[in-house]
């Protein structure tokens, strides 16, 4: 029988524990999530982001600097965004605080009105709340 301080037993233990650690490391690498989104071309990511609602875009901007840069650089707008895409309305400010649309704005603001989509006979009509369905 081997003694507790037997060098052959210690070598076997070290060999087994090294193999165990190596196998565990390989398994962890196989199971970790892959960063496929970062490998996609920018135009594909812009197209994907353009199908997302405001809340999802805001979460993406907070989660990754690269996503934030893409949203702001390409001016991605959410599907539920009430900012008008027409260039004629691009410079229209908020009626109350004079906030203007900035590229990549995915604010969840409830109080700033967004430019509305058409002109009325007596002037432009605006959304008075970006999250409220009624118009003012």
From TrEMBL:
Signal sequence, start to end? none
Kindly indicate whether the keyword Membrane belongs to this entry. Answer: no
Q: What's the protein called, per UniProt?
A: F-box only protein 46
Q: Which Gene3D superfamilies match?
A: 1.20.1280.50
The family database entries (PANTHER family) matched by this protein are listed as:
F-BOX ONLY PROTEIN 34/46 FAMILY MEMBER (PTHR16271), F-BOX ONLY PROTEIN 46 (PTHR16271:SF10)
Instruction: Kindly state which keywords UniProt assigns to this record, in alphabetical order.
Output: Ubl conjugation pathway
What are the residue boundaries of the F-box domain, all occurrences included?
A: 34-86
């Amino acid at each position: 029988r081997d003694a507790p301080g037997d060098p052959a037993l210690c070598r076997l233990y070290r060999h087994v524990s090294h193999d165990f650690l190596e196998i565990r490391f390989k398994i962890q690498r196989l199971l970790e999530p892959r960063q496929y989104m970062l490998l996609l071309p920018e135009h594909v990511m812009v197209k994907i982001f353009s199908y997302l609602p405001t809340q999802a875009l805001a979460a993406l901007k907070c989660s990754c600097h690269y996503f934030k840069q893409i949203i702001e650089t390409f001016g991605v707008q959410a599907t539920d965004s009430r900012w008008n895409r027409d260039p004629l309305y691009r410079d229209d400010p908020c009626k109350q605080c004079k906030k203007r649309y900035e590229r990549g704005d995915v604010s969840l603001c409830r109080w700033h009105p967004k430019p509305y989509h058409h002109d009325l006979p007596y002037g432009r009509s605006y959304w008075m709340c970006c999250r409220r369905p009624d118009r003012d």
